[in-house]
Write a structure and sequence with these properties.
The chain has 329 residues and is an alpha/beta fold. It contains 11 helices and 12 strands. The protein is globular, with a radius of gyration of 20 Å. Bound molecules: ligand PBG. It holds the Pfam family ALAD.
Length: 329
């Protein structure tokens, strides 16, 4: 251990000027790290503002194209798509429809932009089921096996539409293995999987459920999403997903879970994503609207701390604003 101390050691020497500070900067936030979540909705013609998420909209396919043009021009490498169907039923039938909103969205984006934009599709049932749970239900229980089967059908439909990457978020056991198998059996070996591995049953998802009309109609998600008291369990979840064939693992939400991001990155050295979720977005937006915080400063500091903790990439609703700010710099 180095033993020099004051006055030989003066930490402030490396803080005196902007240039020296930039020279010793340990962590950088880059536009290359960001993934922008986009909501596409069936049957609308105008963008629909999402009340609890100022600056975010549900988009039609036409507006989605315009949005992607903007995303690409800002240098954002990837988007993750969430679909909002026009009808819901107990099986979430529209989730695997070849003409479903997400499948059509992927097709039009790929047709127009090809490899200029990486397209990730969120894979879950909750936006598509009339009960709002992330799986198939019997007697108010969420069934694991039948849900995996549905997820396989959905994954293949996304892959047929041309998605680059699938992001299963329903927290069923064995979901990564089931999807890897379904993709490989259908010759989609190169479609990758970003697993929502350590996804907690979190209060921070509130605004998203409003955005995607996906709140459960009864009970909660605690029989499948994780208890936020549990860190060791998060590590087991990640280990299982790596062994099942995940290409990227994720911790979600981000800010209140950076201890786990740090541990997981250190332990596995695996490509690691964090999801800066809707509640984290809306809190900053609300405080900034009131003039209580400096939005740009707080956003850049929050996202940088996620990288410092070990995240390689960040799913964030702030991606476009950050793109703008990084350009101005
Ligand atoms: C669907 C899903 C949710 C989020 C991403 N995928 C909501 C949930 O689990 O209830 C949350 C994203 C956010 O809050 O920004 N399972």
């Amino acid at each position: 251990m180095i033993k020099t101390k004051f006055p030989i050691s003066r930490m402030r020497r490396l803080r005196y000027t902007p240039l020296i500070r930039s020279l010793v900067k340990e962590t950088q936030l880059s536009i290359n790290d960001l993934i922008y979540p986009i909501f596409v909705k069936e049957g609308i013609i105008e963008p629909e503002p999402i009340a609890a998420m100022p600056g975010q909209f549900r988009l039609s396919l036409d507006d989605l194209i315009k949005e992607c043009e903007q995303v690409i021009s800002l240098g954002i490498p990837a988007i993750i798509l969430f679909g909002i169907p026009s009808e819901k039923d107990s099986n979430g039938s529209l989730a695997s429809d070849p003409d479903g909103i997400v499948q059509l969205a992927v097709k039009v984006i790929k047709q127009r932009f090809g490899d200029q934009l990486l397209v990730i599709t969120d894979l879950c049932l909750c936006q598509y089921t009339d009960h709002g749970h992330c799986g198939i239900i019997q007697d108010n229980q969420i069934l694991n096996g039948p849900t995996l089967k549905r997820m396989q059908e959905i994954a293949v439909s996304h892959a047929n539409a041309g998605t680059d990457m699938i992001a299963p978020s329903s927290m069923m056991d064995g979901q990564v293995q089931a999807l890897r198998k379904a993709l490989d059996d259908n010759k989609f070996e190169i479609v990758s999987i970003m697993a929502y591995s350590a996804k907690f049953s979190s209060n921070f998802y509130g605004p998203f459920r409003d955005a995607a009309s996906s709140a459960p109609s009864f009970g909660d998600r605690k029989s499948y999403q994780m208890d936020y008291s549990n860190g060791n369990e998060a590590i087991r979840e990640v280990l299982l997903d790596i062994n099942e064939g995940a290409d990227i693992i994720m911790v979600k939400p981000a800010l209140a879970y950076l201890d786990l991001v740090y541990k997981i990155k250190k332990k596995f050295g695996f490509p690691t994503a964090v999801y800066n979720v809707s509640g984290e977005y809306s809190m900053i937006k609300a405080a900034a609207e009131k003039g209580w915080i400096n939005e740009k400063g707080v956003v850049l500091e929050s996202l940088l701390s996620m990288k410092r903790a070990g995240a390689d990439m960040i799913l964030t609703y702030f991606a476009k604003e950050v793109g703008q700010w990084l350009k101005e710099k």
